[in-house]
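Marked as duplicate of an earlier ticket. Keeping the data here for the record.
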Amino acid sequence: MELAELLDMQNELDKIIMKNKDVNLTNAELLHCKVIAMLTEIGEFSNEHGGFKYWKKNHVRDNEKVLEEWVDILFFYLSISNLLGYSSDDIIGKYLEKLRINLSRAKGSY
């Protein structure tokens, strides 16, 4: 599956949510809410992963729950990308541009 397909599917889901939940927010308000929601999902992912919990001796990682939280982050990433008007070409192009920079930094003394 391609990134463009995921963005399209997310767009359809967002339309359904906006209609069925009678959401009446400006794009700026919606962006703020989605960023907060994604940050919350990142926290949930971190908590499920538990790698930072050095003090906890018996942390049992449930990889299915970790993956579920990771996908929740992806939902908001896609939703925010759509809201900002980023296409799959925009995202992939910027990724490749930044990858070249990061590779150069990694090979150098950054």
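See parent ticket for discussion. The chain has one domain: 3-107.
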